[in-house]
Every structure is written in structure tokens, then in C-alpha cells.
Task: structure prediction
Amino acid sequence: GNVADLIQRAGFPPVHLAEINFQAMYEQQQAQAAGAVAQ
Result:
């Protein structure tokens, strides 16, 4: 199965997984923006 299946088996609801993904993408975006300014 996919990641969502694994997460559900591990006991995490898909919504929580989505929040983690959103947070990770946001932090990556911020890091890229900071890097672009630094250069």
C-alpha cells in the first residue's frame, strides 16, 4: 500500500499526516526563501 495505509496501520489518522506534510512543505518553502535572500 501507500504511505496513508502504513500510517493508518501505525495508528495515525490521515488528517494528522496531512498536517505533518503541510508543516514540512511550509518549513521547506521558508528555508528556500531564506536561502534565496542570503544568496
Summary: The mean pLDDT is 81.
